[in-house]
Amino acid sequence: MDCSTDGVQEVENDSSSSPRGEQSPVMDRNPSPPRDTADGEEGEDLDAIGDTIYSKHWLFSTLTRLIHMVTEHSEDDSEGQMQLTDDDEEDLCRVWDMAMDKNVAGFLQEFKATDILLGVIAKSRCPRLTEICVGILGNIACFPDTCVTLSQNEDLGAVLLLLFGDTDPPTLLETSRLVLTCVSQEDVSSMWLQRIQQQASVRSNILFIMCSSTNTDLLEKVGELVDKLFDRDEELMKSWITAQPSEEGDEGESRLDVALCLLEAAKQLRLESPTGLEVYLHAIQLLTTIEEGIQTFAAPDGPGKAVWDFVCEVVCEDLCQPNDLPVVLQEQKGILVQAFAVLQALYRCQNQWSSKNDTSLPLIGTILRVLQYHSECKDDSTSKDDTQDEQLQTLAEITAEFLADICIQIRKDTVADLVKKGHLTEKTCLTAVGSLLPNFKTSFQHLQSMLSETDPQLADMVRKQFPV
Questions:
Q1: How far apart are CA 410 and CA 77, in angstroms?
Q2: Which residues contact 157 (CB under 8 A, 6 or more apart)?
């Protein structure tokens, strides 16, 4: 089951503004060269782009200056790094900001700006210039019509995918944003997925970013891209799991494990970005929906145990704590859905791991607490209105399924410890049993049997409340 959430999946129209030391001032009008004559409003209308107040003349002159700038540098010093002047950078950042307007994006396409920017990126020896050019293209791609035209440019597609091998984090961020925007557009998604599948270096470069970068913004965006790729194309996901060294140019990088790279990025984002962590957990969960992914996690020396330990730690230490109010589920439901979906899939692989630990008491305690909090939230919401929170309901269903898997083979001493440490109380026990019945009767019967041996009084109470 793909436990996707709205927050994870929606990435449409991911436009960006130019990151500068200070944000661009709100412009009444882009600067234009002085007019020879005071041609009044009629001249301004002719010079305006669509129904905006942006100047065609100024945009033409800025792009023309950009072409000359890059050409001159490549002729004078093809190896040395190019530096943008403050004025040039300011003007190009204004173009970046302007491209967020649909009229300007369309005009840039008509003016063949895509080809111009492609040429600049190919010749650029300036990381900041490359970042700005990719950022402009990213904003152009936010609109369906211009995205289709841009995506049909095969040379541009090839160059952009090669940029994942760049070493400049801002350029990598804008490249990820642009490709994510295109993959998210229904009309061109398949075109980009095919390109990515055919360009093996994309896999190794993206995995390298995930396992080595400490840039939060970059990791978040790369995570969104990988999550979208896996969600859109199961065959691509399979190929990334099973890639062999001979399929990629760099033998060392091709040995990077997808699950372990996702795990490293998730660790990096754990404290910095709960939203980013949720995205990575969803990407890991998607791996568990296919046989190749399960085989990877079940391998005796595979990544399954490491992923299990990390997700358990997140659940037990960061989420749904004993001193939290039940309403915390509203805030944490998305990440809990992904975490429990991953843990449930990995729980079924544990018997094949070279080292297996008993399911931790804190984890079972958190599961019981989530079910209890959900019961209280449901009672509270029912008294207010009749609407049902679908994501909360999904969380309750996954948590109940996970508890059923645990209870079907839970040991007597584990039940005794749960009671002793206060995890299994009269309140949580009744809620847990209520979640197990009627769908998980076998799990209930085993739990009831263990309770009868460890706490007969609690077992009798359960028997009276749920006579089965």
A1: 71
A2: 151, 191, 192, 195
CB 399 within 8 A of CB 371: yes
Helix axes 274-287, 328-347, angle to 10 degrees: 30
Report how far residue 295's alpha carbon sits from residue 349's, in angstroms, rounded to the nearest whole number. 9
CA distances for 293 relative to 239, 342, 445, 465, angstroms: 11, 12, 32, 41
Alpha helices of 141-247 — where are they, by DSSP H?
Answer: 144-151, 154-162, 169-183, 189-198, 201-212, 216-232, 234-242
- For tokens 């009309």, the residue is 187
**Cis amide leading into 438 (omega within 30):** yes
**Cα(351)–Cα(146) distance, integer angstroms:** 52
- The span from the CA of 339 to the CA of 278, in Å, is 8
pLDDT tens column, 301-345: 899 999 999 999 999 999 999 999 999 999 999 999 999 999 999
Query: At residue 79, what is the residue type?
Result: E
pLDDT in tens, 33-63: 444 444 545 555 678 888 888 999 999 899 9
* Residue 359 near residue 306 (C-beta atoms within 8 A): no
Please give the full DSSP string across 128-144, using - where no structure is assigned. Answer: HHHHHHHHHHHHHTTSH
**Closest listed residue to residue 395, CA positions, set 331, 438, 451, 466:** 331
Three-state SS at 177: helix
Work out the pLDDT band at 162, boundaries 50, 70, 90.
Answer: very high
Q: Is residue 283 within a helix (H) or strand (E), and if so which, with residue range?
A: helix 274-287
